[in-house]
Write a structure and sequence with these properties.
- With 433 residues, the chain is of the alpha+beta class.
- It folds into 2 domains: 220 residues, 2-Layer Sandwich (Cytochrome Bc1 Complex, Chain A, domain 1); 188 residues, Metalloenzyme, LuxS/M16 peptidase-like (Cytochrome Bc1 Complex, Chain A, domain 1, 2-Layer Sandwich), CATH 3.30.830.
- The protein is built from 17 helices and 12 strands.
- The chain has a 7-stranded mixed sheet, with helices on both faces. A 5-stranded mixed sheet has the order 8-12-9-11-10, with helices on both faces.
- A hairpin with a 7-residue loop joins strand 10 and strand 11.
- Helix 1 crosses helix 7, helix 9 crosses helix 16 and helix 10 runs antiparallel to helix 11.
- The chain is globular, with a radius of gyration of 23 Å.
Length: 433
């Protein structure tokens, strides 16, 4: 069946093919360490592709696409959940800024079922109003869990403050009014805009043969047409930030949280790698600078540095989960002072080498099992190039102290900074407000 596919490239043991009939991208990686396989379909659409009025559409579709399709539904006695769980599969889906993915981890002999189901719901999902209405209870509960989590509320507000024009401003789950009021017809319009083979990547990792798996993909996806229209492009760019921004969230909680965020480059930018080294130096483990300068002083229970690469510009964020009596301003100053120190004096070769060793170990763990590999490839696909995963360690090991010094000077500027505070309040505080 290889004649139906165009071979594109190989990187890190992953082979890329393109299905000639509809431009579906296919990634294959054989791993015979266990008799299982992971099948994942990544759609190149996420909350980045939404706008005011239909924020949360990708996440709502994630829920509805489990409710049945032309071949797999309750009326036929073969719902998606039943078919896959009957063969011991682990199944789920996730949505984020730049992508949505649907996946199955299952015994290798049942791979055909996973491929068949994903092909059927790519263009045959029911998306019925009678399914949407009861599912809204589940979505509401998920939304409220996030609203009751101090960290998630703070994180949402930091992103909404740091980004004003770009849709990273919107939380992936959507704004409450949009979730409650979007129509099923609007969801169908969104589905018909983005859910096509030429806007998707099918990934198979595990115990299989390439020829047999390409045959399965051709069998189930080969007759699906490519989109009759161009996939809509998200062209909004965030204007340059021109000064420090602040946001406060005051709600019931036990302890303050401080977040210090700076604009970071798009995921494919080479500056991503020294920023990851910098993040490790600052916040990874007991030898990190923030552990010694903040946690060891009893000012915080945890400090983490978050630097996930996205398709467009992201955020390099330090979060400090403070001890109850600590003033956020004190820890904010310690964080910014550490940034200033690195901008002036850089970092040592020993710090860079230690960070590289930690990242090397984490990268090894990320290849433990077919689902883990598929999941990491999924994030690289979302950032714009799946080889970002396979070449990641090589790029990280090339980083020098001078690279880290340079990116600290370039990105950790006050003009690019957004500071957020979660301030816990009591009932009496609320009465005074």
């Amino acid at each position: 069946m290889k004649e139906n596919f165009e071979y594109i490239r190989n990187s890190g043991g992953v082979e890329e093919y393109k299905l000639k009939t509809n431009d579906l991208t296919v990634l294959l990686m054989e791993d015979h360490s266990a008799p299982t396989a992971t099948f994942m379909v990544t759609y190149h659409v996420g909350s980045r592709n939404e706008a005011v009025g239909h924020t949360g559409a990708t996440h709502l579709l994630e829920h509805l696409m489990f409710k049945g399709s032309a071949k797999y539904n309750k009326d036929n006695g073969n719902s998606i959940w039943k078919v896959l769980q009957d063969v011991g599969a682990q199944i789920n889906a996730t949505t984020w800024f730049d992508r949505t993915n649907y996946f199955e981890l299952l015994p290798k002999e049942h791979l055909d079922k996973a491929v068949s189901i994903e092909a059927d719901r790519m263009r045959g999902a029911f998306l019925r109003d009678e399914d949407r209405q009861p599912e809204m209870t589940v979505v509401h509960n998920e939304y409220e869990r996030g609203e009751n989590d101090p960290f998630e509320v703070l994180d949402k507000n930091i992103w909404a403050t740091a980004y004003q024009a770009h849709p990273y401003h919107h939380p992936t789950i959507g704004w409450r009014a949009d979730i409650e009021n979007i129509s099923t017809d609007r969801l169908k319009e969104f589905y018909n805009s983005f859910y096509w083979p030429n806007n998707a990547t099918a990934t198979v990792i595990g115990d299989f043969s390439v020829n047999e798996t390409l045959s399965l993909i051709w069998k189930h996806f080969g007759k699906i047409p490519r989109s009759p229209h161009k996939i809509p492009i998200m062209y909004t760019e965030e204007p340059p930030q021109e000064g420090l921004r602040r946001v406060e969230v005051k709600r019931f909680g036990e302890a303050p949280i401080i977040g210090v965020a700076h604009k970071s480059p798009e995921g494919k930018n080479q500056d991503t790698y020294p920023l990851h080294i910098l993040g490790s130096i600052l916040g990874s483990g007991k030898t990190s600078r923030f552990y010694r300068n903040i946690i060891d002083k009893g000012l915080a229970m945890d400090v983490s540095v978050w630097d996930h690469p996205f398709h467009d510009n992201g955020l390099f964020i330090t979060y400090a989960f403070l001890t109850p009596e600590t003033q956020p301003e004190e820890v904010e100053k310690l964080i910014l002072d550490e940034y200033d120190s690195i901008q002036k004096d850089g970092v040592s070769e020993k710090e860079v080498a230690r960070a590289q060793s930690k990242i090397r170990a984490m990268t090894a763990f990320s290849r433990d099992g077919s689902y883990s590999i598929a999941s990491h490839l999924n994030e690289a696909i979302a950032a714009g190039d799946w080889t970002l995963y396979t070449t990641y360690l090589e790029r990280v090991m090339e980083i020098t102290p001078e690279d880290v010094h340079r990116v600290a000077q370039r990105y950790l500027r006050e003009s690019q900074c957004t500071v957020g505070q979660f301030i816990p309040v009591t009932g009496s505080d609320e009465d005074k407000a």
